TrEMBL record:
SMART domains: FCD, HTH_GNTR. Residues 7-75 form the HTH gntR-type domain. It comes from Stappia sediminis. It comes from the Bacteria. This is FCD domain-containing protein. CDD domains: WHTH_GntR.
């Protein structure tokens, strides 16, 4: 566990920030705490913190979206991280959802064709964990795993890479799009049944139904968040 230090040296600040990220087990697409929290946790001035963040951003370790926050990049020193950061500032939540509607039903269809028995089990486990979630945060984490497990089940590394990049942009542009009126998903949350239909179609090796079920699910999500897309 990191302890608070009086960090004023710029070089030390970068090292402390790297250690904080490593100790926090942050994954690609995860958002770092706000600057105010980082200043308190790491014991450094706002100016020093921002310089350290700028260095990590130039290295491709993180990317930042004005008004959304600072996110862990998908590929540490990969120039594509900068491209995704730029994209996220140009993409609206509606455009993001249209991209999902174009890509993810096709991924579900490919998963129904190619998924191994082990891949189907991973999809069903993620579905069940989302159903049992005790908070929205926990639900969203398992929902992410559910959708990524479907992309993994295609056996197509290019489709998986496209999914990961779209998902990284999604986290940025839709971060504040949802207003919650409860602490956890209600028992009749529509995504539960939709997830089940998707998983069942993939398990049944039914590509057409898997495609339709995923499109119905994302259409339902779109309607809840943004109205008709």
């Amino acid at each position: 566990m990191l302890t608070r230090t009086d960090t004023s040296d710029y070089g030390d600040a970068i090292s402390v920030l790297r250690a904080f990220i490593k100790a926090g087990n942050y994954k690609p697409g995860d958002r770092l705490p706000p600057e105010r929290e980082l200043i308190g946790s790491l014991g450094m001035s706002r100016t020093t913190l921002r310089k350290a963040l700028e260095t990590l951003e130039r290295e491709g370790a993180i990317w930042r979206h004005v008004g959304k926050g600072t996110f862990i990049a998908a590929h540490g020193n990969d120039a594509r991280s900068g491209c995704l950061a730029a994209l996220s500032q140009q993409v609206s939540p509606v455009h993001m959802m249209r991209a999902r509607l174009s890509l993810e039903p096709a991924i579900a269809r490919e998963a129904a064709i190619n998924a191994s028995d082990e891949a189907v089990i991973r999809i069903k486990v993620a579905r069940d964990k989302a159903l049992e979630a005790s908070s929205w945060e926990e639900y969203e984490a398992h929902d992410d795993v559910f959708h990524r497990s479907i992309a993994e089940a295609t056996g197509n590394v290019l489709l998986l890479a496209l999914f990961d990049q779209l998902n990284q942009v999604r986290r940025a542009v839709a971060w504040n799009a949802v207003v919650r009126h409860s602490t956890r998903p209600p028992s009749d949350h529509s995504s539960f049944d939709e997830h089940e239909r998707i998983a069942d179609a993939i398990e049944a090796r039914d590509p057409a139904t898997a495609h339709a079920a995923m499109r119905e699910h994302l259409g339902s999500v779109s309607a809840r968040l943004f109205g008709e897309v």
